């Protein structure tokens, strides 16, 4: 089953997914081995690989290492059209629908389209919505786009609905790496109740209980990267918290 089909089916069944975000700039093979081992034990659903600013040449090597050592699906989470690797399983084809930068709405997609088409990857059109997390983030700086205010639930809602009606198969709301304020449950709940696409939530999730509450509010996929970079042992607690929601649903 394709990854998108699996996500859509899980949403219908009320099952939640947990994804570990890996920045190729911040890992080596030794750390990857530890993350893979812990992720397998914790039954992590997906690896997301990428970052707002990948400056090393480790992307391909990182993905190949993961694929050699486990069967957890690898999804590209690109910060630029250059972040492509045919060894991954799927690509979040991101449009920054919360901003007004035409390059990140369609411009970079035009440039990358021939390469993406030839890659053989499963392409998942994704409406990417950046929410203000209380601190400047790389994605906000690179995109030159103002994030949605954290207390403006209606703006997030209308943006998500517009993205879905424009054909986005996934909606990804992100407060950014190192956010001081994670996305509120009230915003997640409002958006989730008014779209049918799987809803991905990331940024600022540092405690398992926040992952749990996000899922209870309507998140379908929880993405954690920064907290795990600091303490890889959190993988099991985060995964257990996310998957327990489906058990109790």
Sequence-ordered SSE layout with sheet pairings:
Elements: H1 3-13, E1 17-22, H2 29-41, E2 46-49, H3 59-69, E3 74-76, E4 90-96, H4 102-119, E5 122-130, H5 138-143, H6 153-165, E6 170-174, H7 185-194, E7 199-202, H8 208-217, E8 221-224, H9 226-230, H10 234-248
Parallel strand pairs: 1-2, 1-8, 2-3, 3-4, 4-5, 5-6, 6-7, 7-8
Helix pairs in contact: 2-3, 6-7, 7-8, 8-10
Characterization of this structure:
By secondary structure, the protein is α/β, with parallel strands linked by helices. The chain contains ten helices and eight strands. Strands 1-2-3-4-5-6-7-8 form an eight-stranded parallel barrel, surrounded by seven helices. The two termini are 24 Å apart.
| Number of helical elements | 10
Strand order of the largest sheet: 1-2-3-4-5-6-7-8
Terminal CA distance reads 24 Å
Strand content: 15-25%
> How would you name the oligomeric state of the polypeptide chains in this document?
single chain
Fraction of helical residues: 40-55%
- Largest beta-sheet characterization: 8 strands, parallel, barrel
- Secondary-structure element sequence? HEHEHEEHEHHEHEHEHH
Q: Give the number of DSSP strands.
A: 8
Low-confidence stretches: none
Any idea what the radius of gyration is? 16 Å
The average pLDDT value, as a whole number, equals: 94
Which structural class is indicated by helix and strand composition? alpha/beta
Q: Assign an overall shape.
A: globular
């Amino acid at each position: 089953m394709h990854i998108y089909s699996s996500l859509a089916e899980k949403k219908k069944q009320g099952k939640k997914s947990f994804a570990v975000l890996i920045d190729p700039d911040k890992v080596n093979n030794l750390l990857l081995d530890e993350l893979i081992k812990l992720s397998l034990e914790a039954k992590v659903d997906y690896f997301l690989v990428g970052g707002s600013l990948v400056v090393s040449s480790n992307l391909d090597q990182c993905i190949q290492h993961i694929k050699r050592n486990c069967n957890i699906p690898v999804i590209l989470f690109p910060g630029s059209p250059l972040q492509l690797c045919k060894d991954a399983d799927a690509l979040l084809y991101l449009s920054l629908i919360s901003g007004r930068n035409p390059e990140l709405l369609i411009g970079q997609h035009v440039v990358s389209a021939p390469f993406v088409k030839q890659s053989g990857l499963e392409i998942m059109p994704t409406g990417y919505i950046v929410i203000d997390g209380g601190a400047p983030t790389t994605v906000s700086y690179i995109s030159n786009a103002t994030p949605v205010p954290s207390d403006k639930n209606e703006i997030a809602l209308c943006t998500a609905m517009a993205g879905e009606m424009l054909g986005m198969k996934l909606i990804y709301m992100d407060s950014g790496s190192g956010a001081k304020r994670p996305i509120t449950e009230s915003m997640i709940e409002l958006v989730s109740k008014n779209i049918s696409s799987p809803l991905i939530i990331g940024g600022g999730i540092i405690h398992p209980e926040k992952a749990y509450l996000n899922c209870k509010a309507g998140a379908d996929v929880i993405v954690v990267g920064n907290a795990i970079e600091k303490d890889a042992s959190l993988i099991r607690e985060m995964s257990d918290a996310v998957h327990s929601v489906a058990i109790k649903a």
